[in-house]
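Long-time lurker, first post. I've been practising inverse folding by hand and with some scripts of my own, and I keep getting stuck on stretches where the structure tokens seem ambiguous. Below is the full token string for one chain I'm working on. Before anyone asks, I'm not after the true native sequence, just a reasonable design that respects the backbone. If someone could post their per-position residues I'd love to compare against what I wrote down in my notebook.
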């Protein structure tokens, strides 16, 4: 069994999404199935078949989120080592090719969101940064080619968490 390490914020978000699916969306789909069934012949009833497909899709998403939560472990931020890049580190770095500065938080795959500057720990950039220190330079192969990044600063992520 492999654990899914994540922040308290990410865990709470997954729990809320699961509740939304189970308590709001699934009952709506079941109601749509019942209404479509009442319309008669099911063999040519598009609404019935569409609602059944949606129910199947929702049940799959519910099972997936349940499995993730079963294996979830919330990281205790106070136990993270300072000075090296790891899960939930906020890393400021410079692209040495163009001197562009960027800051990303290394997050679990379930919390990754580029709009929030959170990259998956499984991404090539995060993998190259893991266990590195301020001042270290890493080379990363990305779809656009090879990039060189220098780590300027490492801080714990702003989201606070407690251990499960």
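-- Answer (accepted) --
I ran through it position by position. Result:
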């Amino acid at each position: 069994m492999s654990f899914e390490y994540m922040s308290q914020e990410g865990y709470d978000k997954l729990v809320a999404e699961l509740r939304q699916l189970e308590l709001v969306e699934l009952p709506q789909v079941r109601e749509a199935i019942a209404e479509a069934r009442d319309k008669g012949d099911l063999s040519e009833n598009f609404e019935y078949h569409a609602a059944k497909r949606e129910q199947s899709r929702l049940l799959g998403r519910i099972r997936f989120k349940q499995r993730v939560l079963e294996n979830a472990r919330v990281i205790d931020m106070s136990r993270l080592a300072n000075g090296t890049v790891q899960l939930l580190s906020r890393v400021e770095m410079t692209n040495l090719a163009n001197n562009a500065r960027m800051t990303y938080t290394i997050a679990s795959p379930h919390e990754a969101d580029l709009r929030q500057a959170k990259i998956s720990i499984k991404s090539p950039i995060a993998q190259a940064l893991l266990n590195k220190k301020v001042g270290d330079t890493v080379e990363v192969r990305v779809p656009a080619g090879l990039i060189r990044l220098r780590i300027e600063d490492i801080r714990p992520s702003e989201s606070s968490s407690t251990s499960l």
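A couple of notes from the structure itself: Strands lie at 4-6, 72-74, 89-95, 100-107, 118-120, 137-142, 145-156. Residues 160-164 have pLDDT under 50 and may be disordered. Happy to go over any region you disagree with.
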